[in-house]
Design goal:
Largest sheet: 6 strands, mixed
CATH class of the largest domain: Alpha Beta
Strand content: 15-25%
Structural class: alpha+beta
Helix content: 40-55%
Strand order of the largest sheet: 1-2-6-3-5-4
Radius of gyration: 23 Å
Order of helices and strands: EEEHHEEHHHHEHEEHHEEHHHHHE
CATH topology of the largest domain: Cytochrome Bc1 Complex, Chain A, domain 1
Number of helices: 14
CATH architecture of the largest domain: 2-Layer Sandwich
CATH superfamily of the largest domain: Metalloenzyme, LuxS/M16 peptidase-like
Number of strands: 11
């Protein structure tokens, strides 16, 4: 007998406790006694959008653990490995995320290494040159692929080639990246004024005090004025010629708004219906019905100062024109035909289920908490968003598609052997 399907309409998510430290850093805690693990995430407003020297932001983030004034890169790696601790760095256009995870019993030892990484990175010249050479080679190889070419061209088409969200620096500039430039970026942007901390897992008073002491050790920085964000200069078509390519990478979408906009969640429903799950309209069309691709995705993308809707896929060059037309047709069908109630209910269930999956465990809750903090919200917004999703009607979906996905507003980018339009 098949058990009944239960779809929650409400999600009660733990709220983070916030403490303001003496140097102005906000420390958020999500205590959970169930797991004997702890994760500390330091989030710095130090993404690539604020850099003035190409690649200095990513180099600063990725070289933090490559040697300190007291430990070599090998010593740092061996200590973390010995205690089974996990260290991870991610950087995007707006922020750098420095994460440490440890078993509770090795918290003190891991935090000692974290202090070296965060407060005393040395950026050794030898490590920088090795890093730069590897990244230059990797970027050069990546840029021979049509999907990378299309991704970079799409960002340029949306924002403009000189915009902080659209710029693509030449890989040769890794050769001239200096230790002084990396250290200067660290000094200017890894400061108390540009940081908050999220601690999740088994947090006792000792752990709370120790993490707070480390965060309070972050130095104050000069009042930084970020580089100016010019108005985006959008072009509606861009083709990147790739002679001999057997596949074409297609991207289309448009600039819209960041997550704080009242229509962002609704447009997430629209994007999910189009290409946000395996049974979506674009997957059924391009993969199941026509065999043009193995996969296609549609999503809303959120930056600090912008947001956009995008569709991405890779197809055989010989069917690129047909595949592109099918994408246009599916978007137009959303604009002209109300979505069947059963399909919309499936989309809602998929979105709710995915949120439940993400929130399974203290680290998943911490990830969502960080995202909400960056958007100026707390975790009550999760329940609000679920209610918005559950209340969407076919008329709502159609109205949003009509408002935001008109053909003349879409940006289309292709990389491949032949122009598909």
């Amino acid at each position: 007998m098949t058990p009944p399907r239960i779809t929650p309409s409400e999600i009660d998510v733990q709220l983070a406790e916030k403490r303001m430290l003496r140097n102005g850093v906000a420390l958020y805690t999500l205590a959970s006694e169930e797991f004997e693990v702890l994760r500390i995430s330091f989030v710095f407003r130090a993404g690539s959008a604020v850099q003035t020297v190409p690649f200095s932001a990513s180099a600063a983030a990725n070289l933090l653990a490559e040697g300190s004034t007291r430990r070599s890169a090998q010593q740092i790696a061996e200590e973390l490995d010995y205690y089974g601790s996990w260290y991870d760095v991610n950087i995007d256009r707006d922020y750098a995320y420095i994460n440490f995870a440890t078993l509770s019993k090795f918290f003190d030892q891991t935090l000692e290494v974290a202090e070296e990484i965060l407060l005393r990175p040395a950026f050794p010249e030898e490590e920088l040159r090795t890093y730069a050479a590897k990244r230059k080679q990797r970027l050069a190889i990546d840029r021979t692929k049509v999907d990378v070419q299309a991704r970079e061209a799409f960002a340029r088409a949306l924002f403009g080639p000189k915009h902080p969200y659209g710029i693509s620096s030449e890989e040769r500039l890794y050769d001239s990246l200096s230790r002084a430039e990396v250290a200067d970026f660290y000094r200017r942007y890894y400061t108390a004024e540009r940081c908050f901390v999220v601690c999740s897992g088994r947090i006792g008073e000792h752990e709370l005090q120790a993490v707070g002491a480390l965060a309070e050790s972050l130095p104050h920085g000069a009042s930084e004025t970020d580089i100016s964000f010019p108005k985006p200069e959008t072009v509606h078509e861009e083709f990147v010629a790739h002679s001999g390519a057997v596949q074409s990478s297609l991207r289309l979408g448009r600039l819209l708004f960041p997550r704080q906009h009242p229509d962002f969640v609704g447009m997430q429903v629209v994007a999910t219906a189009l290409g946000g799950y395996f049974g979506s309209r674009l997957m059924q069309n391009l993969r199941e019905r026509n065999g043009y691709t193995y996969g296609v995705v549609a999503a809303m993308v959120n930056f600090e100062r912008a947001g956009y809707f995008a569709v991405a896929t890779q197809v055989g060059t010989d069917v690129a024109r047909e595949a592109l037309q099918e994408i246009y047709d599916e978007i137009e069908r959303l604009r002209t035909e109300p979505m069947p109630d059963e399909e919309l209910e499936l989309v809602k269930n998929m979105m709710t289920g995915e949120m439940m999956r993400i929130l399974d465990g203290p680290f998943g809750i911490a990830d969502v908490t960080i995202e909400n903090i960056l958007c100026g919200c707390d975790n009550t917004v999760i329940g609000e968003n679920i209610r918005r999703i559950r209340s969407m009607t076919p008329a709502d979906v159609q109205a949003l598609a009509q408002r935001y996905l008109a053909r003349e507003d879409l940006v289309t980018v292709a990389a491949g052997a032949e122009r598909p339009w």
